[in-house]
Write a structure and sequence with these properties.
5 helices; globular; 7% strand; 3-stranded antiparallel beta sheet; mainly alpha
Length: 124
């Protein structure tokens, strides 16, 4: 069953919170806002995986739209003291939070519109 009502609203609010914290983290990294603007939508290039079919597309999209890789990148950035890597991790997590806020969840191989947050375009 897809989330709806209050659980869906909370999941979207979590996305907004992640976006907000990511923007604050990016500010702390001290990198250019042009870089933020340039790279904010870069994770969506993973949708090119859909050219190989829905299962490959879902796999590519989910690999890039899960918090696992950007959080590992952020941890690595802290360990090695790299502000640019930390900034990239913040942009990446911010993008994922923004997607969740808009209702774009992790994809099922049945099609781009089938997500863990419900069918894209369905009212909450």
């Amino acid at each position: 069953m897809s989330p709806r009502g209050m659980p869906l609203a909370l999941l979207r609010l979590e996305g907004a919170a992640v976006l907000g914290v990511s923007v604050l983290a990016y500010m702390q990294a001290g990198e250019s806002w042009w870089l933020f603007a340039l790279l904010f939508l870069a994770p969506d290039l993973s949708m090119l995986g859909y050219l190989a079919g829905p299962a490959a597309g879902a796999g590519a999209y989910n690999a890039v739209h899960s918090y696992i890789l950007p959080l590992l990148l952020g941890a690595l950035a802290v360990l090695v003291g790299s502000h640019p890597l930390f900034a990239l991790a913040a942009i990446w997590t911010g993008h994922i939070g923004f997607d969740r806020l808009l209702g774009y969840g992790l994809k099922y191989p049945s099609g781009f519109g089938d997500t863990h947050l419900g069918r894209i375009g369905r009212k909450a």
